[in-house]
């Protein structure tokens, strides 16, 4: 029996998870299917594989997004983004090597979202966000705000972070020294949640309070909690 949704004290929609997945921490690029047109970095394969595990295979008959091509919004949340691509492009520039146009394309964090929206036939709004205290609360806030729009039925929320390298580790340390509370995960990690407005008797499982400390999950711990709980609950009802 699906519980009645608890009204949000902010007046925003109460969220329910229709589907969820996570990959990592510790997924390696070699373990992830390559993404055509993307090279060198594990970030884009990580995002794509997490979405595939959340939504299933792309196609018009996909039951989760097939009926909602125009009303599915997509949000990608990350602090450091595709640091591998950014660093590689910078290293090539400094060393005087010829710049690779593929690196220029994928250095834009939302490039992988363009690829995914084509694969899944989605034409709703696409956005990317970051925050110095991690992206969990801000990402869920963004989903709530998007669902206030009558033209949006659901939000595909993706959060991804690569394991810290020397540059991004220093950046996270700087953020911490400035009051930020977000920590990098211990390995490459991504989470995907398909969020809808919770309704009494509706499908999905409502969001719950986070359980996991940051630890190896870093600032994605809260979203990992939601994904793991939703997978367990949805699996028990199917």
TrEMBL record:
Signal peptide stretch: none
Residues covered by the Beta-ketoacyl synthase-like N-terminal domain: 69-177
Recorded GO MF terms: acyltransferase activity, transferring groups other than amino-acyl groups
InterPro entries in alphabetical order: Ketoacyl_synth_N (IPR014030), Thiolase-like (IPR016039)
Protein name stated in the entry: Ketosynthase
SUPFAM superfamilies referenced in this protein's UniProt entry, alphabetically: Thiolase-like
A Pfam family reported for this protein in Swiss-Prot or TrEMBL: ketoacyl-synt
């Amino acid at each position: 029996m699906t519980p009645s949704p608890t009204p949000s004290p902010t007046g925003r929609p109460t969220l329910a998870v229709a589907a969820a997945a996570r990959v990592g921490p510790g997924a390696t690029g070699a373990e992830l299917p390559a993404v055509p047109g993307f090279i060198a970095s594990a970030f884009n394969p990580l995002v794509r594989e997490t979405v595939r595990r959340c939504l299933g295979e792309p196609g018009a008959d996909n039951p989760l997004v097939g009926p909602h091509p125009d009303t599915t919004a997509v949000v990608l949340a990350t602090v450091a983004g595709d640091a591998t691509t950014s660093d590689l492009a910078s290293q090539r520039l400094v060393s005087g090597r010829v710049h690779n146009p593929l690196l220029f394309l994928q250095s834009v964090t939302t490039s992988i979202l363009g690829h995914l929206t084509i694969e899944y036939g989605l034409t709703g709004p696409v956005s990317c966000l970051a925050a110095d205290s991690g992206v969990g609360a801000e990402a869920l806030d963004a989903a709530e705000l998007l669902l206030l729009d009558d033209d949006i039925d659901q939000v595909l929320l993706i959060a991804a972070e690569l394991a810290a390298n020397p540059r991004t580790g220093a950046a996270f340390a700087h953020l911490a020294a400035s009051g930020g509370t977000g920590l990098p995960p211990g390995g490459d990690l991504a989470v995907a949640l398909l969020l809808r407005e919770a309704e009494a008797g509706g499908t999905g499982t409502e969001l719950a309070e986070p359980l996991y400390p940051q630890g190896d999950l870093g600032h994605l711990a809260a979203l990992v909690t939601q994904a793991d709980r939703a997978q367990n609950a949805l699996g028990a009802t199917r």
